[in-house]
Every structure is written in structure tokens, then in C-alpha cells.
Design goal:
Blueprint lengths: L23 E6 L6 H12 L3 H14 L1 E7 L1 H13 L4 E5 L4
Antiparallel strand pairs: 1-2, 1-3
């Protein structure tokens, strides 16, 4: 009788680890300085929004005090923030809630 040890085959499969970078919201804040039409013009120029979208976002800023105008990776978010600041709009970044 032959005593052989059981062979244990280990199937180690490489698992892909996906690390998602956090998303960032570019937020325009209401301010007492800029006219509504100017905010619409800036949003259209920087983000390429159509008139309806830019007007909706401007009204959110006006009525709610702020509006998320873009969400994405941090580097482009910072670039958009800089462009908005150059246009003298009050704005900031917040990490988006990843739900």
C-alpha cells in the first residue's frame, strides 16, 4: 500500500484591485458682486453649457446660495476652479459623496 500525501492545488488567481480616485465637485457660490447674466456667460464659456443649463445653474446659485457646476477628477476640477476664479466668481471645491 502506498501512502501518498494529498496534493493541494492552489489556484491563486490575480485579482485586479481597482482603486477609485475620489471625485470632486466644482461649486460656484453666490456673491453680491456679479450680475446673473455675467455668471451665465462665464459658465457657458468655461464649461460649454447651453443657455438653458447655464441659466438653471445660475438660478441655483442665486436661490440656493451655491451650485455644483462640474464633478470629476481632482486635477481638472482644480483647473476649472482656477478659470472661475480668474473670471472673479466665488467658488470652491468639495469632495463628492461617492454613493
Amino acid at each position: 500500500m502506498s501512502t501518498s500525501q494529498p496534493t493541494i492545488e492552489s489556484d491563486v488567481k490575480s485579482q485586479e484591485l481597482t482603486v477609485k480616485s475620489p471625485k470632486w465637485n466644482v461649486i460656484v457660490d453666490n456673491d453680491p458682486v456679479n450680475l446673473m447674466q455675467y455668471v451665465v456667460r462665464v459658465l457657458r464659456r468655461i464649461f460649454g453649457f447651453d443657455l438653458t443649463t447655464a441659466n438653471k445653474l445660475m438660478l441655483d446659485v442665486h436661490n440656493k446660495g451655491k451650485a455644483v457646476v462640474w464633478t470629476g477628477s481632482k486635477e481638472p476640477a482644480e483647473a476649472y476652479l482656477l478659470e472661475l476664479q480668474k473670471a472673479q466668481l466665488s467658488c470652491h471645491l468639495e469632495e463628492a459623496n461617492n454613493v
